[in-house]
Amino acid sequence: MNRKNQNRPNNLHNPRKTVFLRRSFALYAAAISACSLAMPALAATTDPLTVIGNLNTFIFSVIRAVGLILLGWGIVQIGLSLQSHDPSQRSQGFLTLAGGIIITFAKEILDLIVGP
Asked: Could you read off the pLDDT of 23-40 as tens digits, one per residue?
């Protein structure tokens, strides 16, 4: 055996070197995260009501997605209840289906109530 192979295991198990490497890696990871996640703050140059309108559109699209998920789950429940002949599951499926329809079309319903 030559001397390089004899010294190699001792260098790997040096506690000071291990702590130094861990701290160095943590510092490196923090620096990379800070550089990659830093974004400039941009002020809106448009009308503030446009921003509120965009937020409104986003929120209602999320609500519509939840309504579509409930609508699909209601259809699955109705199908399973028809297969198993379970009337309580069937009524639960129809209630979920009706709730999904109402949530999916919540914006249109609110527009009809409030008016233009």
From this structure: 888 888 888 887 777 667
Q: Are residues 23 and 64 in the same domain?
A: no
**What's the structural domain count of the chain?**
2
Residue 82, domain member (yes or no) = yes
Q: Could you list the residue range(s) of the whole structural domain that residue 72 is in? A: 48-114
**Burial of 86 per CB tally in 10 Å (0-12, 13-18, 19+):** middle
> Three-state SS across 50-102?
HHHHHHHHHHHHHHHHHHHHHHHHHHHHHHHHHHHCCHHHHHHHHHHHHHHHH
Would you say 73 and 103 are in contact if contact means Cβ atoms under 8 Å apart? no
Task: Tell whether pTM > 0.70.
Answer: no
The reply to whether 54 and 31 lie within a common domain is: no
